[in-house]
Amino acid sequence: MLFNASVKAALSTAAAMSALLIPAAGSASAASSASGETVGAAAAADSFEAKCRSHSRTYVLKKYYRGPQFFTLRCGTSTWGWKHIKARHGWNSTMDRKIKAAIWSGDPNGRGGYSTYRIGCPRVEKFRTIIGTPAGTNDLLTAYKVDRLAVAGAAAC
Fold first, then answer.
1. Which residue from 84, 121, 125, 133 could staple onto 146, CB 3.0 to 4.6 Å apart?
2. What is the largest CA-CA distance in the chain?
3. Sign of torsion, CA 134 136 140 146?
């Protein structure tokens, strides 16, 4: 009898724990959109879209840090900011991650922003951010994928 009660208690506990650990089919962590993005990334883009619809072009959507300094991503227009990046270069969690990496640890690129490079010689620029907009000098103007030899890197090889 005691053995049966112990087994039932253990199974009940295991079932409760698995329900907490396994995401439900309709949850944001388990679902994906038709494009293959996780719903979380799509939801972030939708959230930015909604915020920009109800706020001005100068509304700050996100801050990217480089040490104690930060750079802002504003809603912007068709020529700068989030609206520009989304329309011209696409917006998803990968773009967000690349912007964060370039600003945090990239090298100054001579265009007022930061870039990441492939390792090797000659240096090949992979991703570029450009900082400075009509709304502010520390605002993200644009960000995009690049596949170009770095001028300084080519001379050093």
1. 125
2. 82
3. positive
In angstroms, the CA 3 to CA 5 distance is: 6
- In the structure encoding, which two tokens stand for residue 6, read together? 């112990």
Strands 69-74 and 114-118, bridge-based pairing: unpaired
φ, ψ for residue 32, nearest 5 deg: -140, 155
Q: What is the pLDDT of residues 105-129, one digit of tens each?
A: 999 998 899 999 998 888 899 999 9
Q: How many CA atoms lie within 13 A of 30 on its CB side?
A: 7
pLDDT digit string, tens, across residues 5-15? 554 554 454 44
**Tell me, what's the pLDDT at 113?**
97
